[in-house]
């Protein structure tokens, strides 16, 4: 699976870079993210819940930042396990380019492989879910760094519509967590543009 998109953020390149390296901001922006904890230098353990078609699971994975060229680019290498739902692994190359003093163009290209039930439901559903989660991530990320949603531009109308569905799914998951006494009320929503590639 491959996914490439470009978004314009309403902040300077340095501000965008700092935000991309702030785990609190990432945790708040990644749909379904429960936690992002350090696991060595430039590496993190990530826990998130996600729904891909009929498959719903809680994934635990690890991401590592490599090929770091601050404040211009880095590569995220990730892998995660979702129990019976299957697994996902891959990498994402993220680049930042200034657009004047107050805007930054963020581009990324992600490649991923999935296995288990995720692989059985078909690439079309997996790709669609990845785009939904990525769209929601950038909508939230733009709002976090710029103080509003206007800075996060969706690549097309289909992704925008998908984003709304992703937000609804995340809220439903959080409500279910709250009812079951879990810590869903603490997490805001968060991270799978990278692991979205699951």
TrEMBL record:
Q: Which InterPro entries match?
A: CO_DH_gsu, START-like_dom_sf
**Source species, domain of life:** Bacteria
The UniProt annotation puts the region (Disordered) at 145-190
What this protein is called in its record is Carbon monoxide dehydrogenase subunit G
Record lineage: Bacteria, Pseudomonadati, Pseudomonadota, Betaproteobacteria, Burkholderiales
